[in-house]
Every structure is written in C-alpha cells, then in structure tokens.
TrEMBL record:
It comes from marine metagenome. This is Uncharacterized protein.
Length: 31
C-alpha cells in the first residue's frame, strides 16, 4: 500500500518536473 502511494507520488513529481522544464523551454524560445 505504501509502496503504491510512493510510486504515484514519484510519477506525479516526474510529470511536474517535465511540465516545468517544457514550460521553461517554451518561455525561453518565445522570449
């Protein structure tokens, strides 16, 4: 149970990091 929740947290964290990096890249290209 704890392992599954931990995995979900890692997945969400990865998605957030990818979204932030993508947003930063797009913003840099636009500017």
């Amino acid at each position: 149970m704890l392992s599954s929740c931990y995995r979900i947290d890692l997945v969400l964290l990865g998605i957030v990091l990818v979204a932030l990096s993508a947003f930063g890249t797009v913003r840099a290209l636009l500017v």
